[in-house]
Amino acid sequence: MESSADRARLRAATALLVLMALSAAACASSGNPRPRPFPGAPPPPQTRPSPPAEPSVVVPPVPVASSAIIDTAMQLRGVPYRNGGSDPSGFDCSGFVQWVFARNGVLLPREVREQYGAGQKIELRQVRPGDLVFFETVNHGASHVGLVIGADQFVHAPSSTGVVRVERFTTSYWAKRFVGARRIGIDPSEQATQ
User: Fold this and answer.
1) Of the candidates 60, 49, 57, 113, the residue with the CA atom closest to the CA atom of residue 84
2) SS3 of 164, please?
3) What is the fold, at CATH topology level, of the domain defined by 54-193?
4) Is 47 exposed, middle or buried (0-12, 13-18, 19+ CB in 10 A)?
């Protein structure tokens, strides 16, 4: 038989759980949730995109110019980060890269780990504008991706500041997390001249 003290403790614990649940829901729906450090963990099941019906990587018959890829990407600076986002209302890192390439006729897989398997593997010293650079941030292996725009700079959709931005991949943070680079459908003659 429960005592009145036991019932009071149970009601207090239940009220605390309800309050915590409401508080968490308010934070998540406030429009300013604190994002994870970087994309990479799979999105919640309700936002997971279904697999494409077509092949996940389609390289155009005529290689695309890296300048067109970079122009598209740079026009998106300032777009907010959104976990699972894949359009200009909000991007995560792989959604950003996929959208930029799709606008230029190249279909890429949606997930970072799948993008890491696409195209031609290249060394960091070989990267050129339009190449993809991959980093290990939240998961083992490639869990973040960005697009090289020139020199040691890349444009990406990080969650740390919440917007698409340009950074240097030679800074200590990125350099120690670098895991690889890929070249996807970029015109080789253009690459040689840059």
Assistant:
1) 49
2) coil
3) endopeptidase fold (from Nostoc punctiforme) (3.90.1720)
4) exposed
Q: Of 59, 69, 73, 93, which one is the catalytic site residue?
A: 93
What is the distance between the alpha carbons of residues 117 and 107, in angstroms, rounded to a whole number?
A: 13
Residues in the chain: 194
> CA–CA distance from 51 to each of 28, 90, 110 (Å)?
27, 20, 9
Q: Of 40, 51, 56, nearest to 141 (Cα)?
A: 40
Burial-class residue 43 by CB neighbours within 10 Å (0-12, 13-18, 19+).
Answer: middle
Q: Which one is catalytic: 82, 110, 144, 182?
A: 144
> How much of the chain exceeds pLDDT 70, in percent?
62
27 is catalytic: no
Question: For the segment 122-134, what is each residue's pLDDT rounded down to a tens digit?
Answer: 999 999 999 999 9
* 156 catalytic per annotation: yes
This prediction has a pTM of: 0.66
The 10s digit of each residue's pLDDT in 131-147 is 999 999 988 999 999 99
Residue 178: which H helix or E strand, with range? strand 178-183
Domain residue ranges of the chain, discontinuous segments joined by + = 1-31, 54-193
Output the six-digit token pair for 162.
Answer: 């919440």
Options 110, 156, 165, 182, the catalytic residue: 156
Q: Give me the residues of the chain with pLDDT under 50, please.
A: 16-56, 58-61, 191-194
